[in-house]
């Protein structure tokens, strides 16, 4: 078993514990139009909690889907090639000895592997990657990228949720652990079956949430408020807005290594790329690094000499030009929620309309941090 593909059919519908719709909405307090912004936010969050607390992951995961799982003994080189070919930024790892999923292979692993190769830290040659298994790489990573005192990082248990968990708990698990998705395990595993059902994402939860809010959009005036009036997202200092994170942007001429440093250090998934005037040109995401796995491009370049423009050119050659998802400070909260519920969209960049100057960024994590605040 080197690469497993699992198709799920009708596994999820029988155990949904959704309360009757009318009961959920009856519990939501009325929202007079005269409420101040603080009260609007409080009422809106109360309504969101009512939906998420009374629905489980079964109400979010598709009834039928394909899930890729890689054997932990698969060679690293082959694993990253599969991830690139299938458009995957992360994939669960199956351990035959333990008979379960024990970890995740991510785009971050690919970045760290490239650095290990190119910095000559007991580097593996490209040929050795043909045989070096994922499990060995995972163990080596704990040694290579240990703590400041040189001690190895201890392997932590696999973060996961159960199929009976409510959507608030699932969303908080993803946010607090700063991950993009989390494996869903069966509540009552059996010895003969695979415990993994699927992966839960913030986007899947938001799509479900938007379908509910559209039915009651007129009852929540906050949905029609402009972003400029809502404390959400990461903002440039010139806007006068404060945020927990510092807004990072990079130029097309910036070294790719600098971009990767910021992505890993700040634990963010993307950075807006701007021209010399600060106008948005593209967004470089951590998952974009997987383009270097095609035809072993990574083996023919030096990361220190590659610019963001070079990396984007490789990405365009592999997948073509792409759309940057943007909004304005005058966009409404509902518009942003709907944009982020589109499959594949994980953040929107806030720009000034005429110049495309980058003013801020709103990610799925920002959305749920605000909704569950």
UniProtKB/TrEMBL annotation:
Alphabetically ordered keywords of this record: CBS domain, Repeat
One GO-annotated biological process of the protein: regulation of glycolytic process
InterPro entries, sorted: AMPK_gamma/SDS23_families, CBS_dom, CBS_dom_sf
CBS domain: residues covered: 63-124, 243-300
A UniProt-annotated Pfam family: CBS
Protein name: CBS domain-containing protein
Organism: Setaria italica (Foxtail millet)
Organism phylogeny: Eukaryota, Viridiplantae, Streptophyta, Embryophyta, Tracheophyta
